[in-house]
């Protein structure tokens, strides 16, 4: 099932891959920390970001090395479920470039670079594009769950750039997961956290399988969710809202951008939306606001941090970096795992503030360089 959906000229959709460029496949949303100089392009007029992909700053450590950290908290593994795709960018001069993308892909890479063993369950074709995506994941140490690669073509987001930098998008998405014994055998028996979001969490036929997996792992793992909406792909808004609300009921942590909040809560009361998700069972709800920083609601109250002042190269993948950092921060506070659910519900205001500061810092590094190029932990430590 690979429908093509046109996206009108205007705002460049969120995302791209780690070490990539402009793209449709991840979460930029102005969600990352913003600028002192440089600027965040306003919604509905995003200009395309051009230039070669950025390169990883270091090679990935081995899986054995990532399984242990000197000092700090024990390393916690994370299973990420969602799309990985290829952005095909057609420039106004006739050039064509391709880059790996996808919000869940970016989250998995962000986690792995922060030292958290990350596995990605996605849907890739057994074609040349799929091989490029696999190589990109492995370069940052992400393990790909068996069954991710299946016969057929890898999903794409075709972006045609106008002379003014605006873009028209056509998505060709296949999103379904293996079922039954094959999937059961491939999945890890347990994980400290399970994250899902973006297209994979609400686009059928795969979204139903994602929901079942989140519910399955909830017995052992902390579950996290970032809707990362794509209105041109979503169909009936009321049905999508129902699906998102249903998934929130099975998630401990939910992050969304202010643009997603505008779509879900048209009256503009974003914090009322966060509060409603706490009532549905979430322990922590986080709103990203671009250069305005982050807001979180929990049982301990409201927390807010301003975005660090940086020169913004672009905002591609900023929200995905924030999501990865939130999960990493929960691990640092020993709050991952179903057995820590009550402790997460009772998280202190000081700990929430610390989480947001960490997430804002990681997001700031990401927006300070081209493409969704999240930091390695050693960069944050200054070594």
TrEMBL record:
Residues 16-35 have a biased composition (Gly residues). Residues 1-74 are annotated as: Disordered. The keyword tRNA processing does not apply. Residues 77-375 form the Carbohydrate kinase PfkB domain. GO terms for molecular function: ATP binding; kinase activity. It comes from the Bacteria. Gene3D superfamilies: 3.40.1190.20. The keyword Transit peptide does not apply. Keywords: ATP-binding, Kinase, Nucleotide-binding, Transferase. Coiled coil: none annotated. InterPro entries: Carboh/pur_kinase_PfkB_CS, PfkB_Carbo_kinase, PfkB_dom, Ribokinase-like. Belongs to the carbohydrate kinase PfkB family. This is Carbohydrate kinase. The lineage of its organism: Bacteria, Bacillati, Actinomycetota, Actinomycetes, Kineosporiales.
């Amino acid at each position: 099932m690979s429908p093509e959906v046109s996206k009108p000229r205007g705002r460049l959709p969120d995302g791209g891959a780690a070490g990539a460029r402009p793209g449709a496949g991840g979460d930029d949303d102005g969600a990352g920390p913003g600028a002192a100089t440089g600027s965040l392009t306003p919604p509905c007029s995003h200009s395309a970001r051009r230039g070669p992909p950025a390169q990883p700053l270091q090679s990935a450590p081995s899986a054995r090395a990532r399984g242990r950290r000197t000092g700090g908290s024990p390393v916690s593994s994370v299973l990420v479920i969602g799309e990985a795709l290829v952005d095909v960018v057609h420039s106004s001069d006739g050039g064509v470039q391709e880059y790996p993308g996808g919000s869940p892909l970016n989250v998995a890479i962000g986690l792995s670079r922060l030292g958290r063993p990350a596995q990605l369950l996605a849907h890739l074709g057994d074609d040349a594009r799929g091989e490029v995506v696999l190589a990109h994941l492995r370069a940052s140490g992400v393990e790909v769950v068996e069954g991710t690669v299946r016969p057929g073509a890898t999903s794409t987001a075709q972006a045609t750039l106008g002379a003014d930098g605006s873009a028209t998008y056509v998505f060709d998405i296949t999103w379904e997961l293996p079922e039954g014994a094959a999937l059961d055998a491939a999945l890890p028996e347990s994980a400290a956290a399970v994250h899902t979001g973006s297209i994979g969490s609400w686009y059928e036929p795969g979204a139903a399988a994602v929901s079942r997996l989140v519910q399955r792992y909830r017995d052992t793992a902390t579950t996290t969710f970032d809707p990362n909406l794509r209105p041109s792909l979503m169909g009936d808004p009321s049905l999508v809202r129902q699906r998102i609300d249903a998934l929130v009921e099975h998630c401990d942590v939910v992050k969304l951008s202010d643009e997603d909040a505008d779509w879900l809560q048209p009256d503009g009361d974003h914090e009322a939306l966060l509060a409603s998700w706490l009532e549905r069972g979430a322990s922590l709800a986080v709103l990203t606001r671009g250069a305005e920083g982050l807001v979180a609601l929990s049982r301990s109250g409201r927390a807010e941090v301003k975005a660090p002042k940086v020169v913004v190269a672009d905002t591609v993948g900023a929200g995905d970096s924030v999501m990865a950092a939130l999960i990493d921060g929960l691990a640092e506070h020993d709050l991952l795992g179903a057995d820590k659910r009550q402790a997460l519900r009772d998280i202190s205001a000081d700990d929430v503030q610390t989480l947001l500061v960490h997430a804002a810092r990681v997001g700031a590094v990401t927006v300070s360089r081209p493409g969704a190029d999240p930091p390695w932990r050693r960069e944050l430590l200054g070594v």
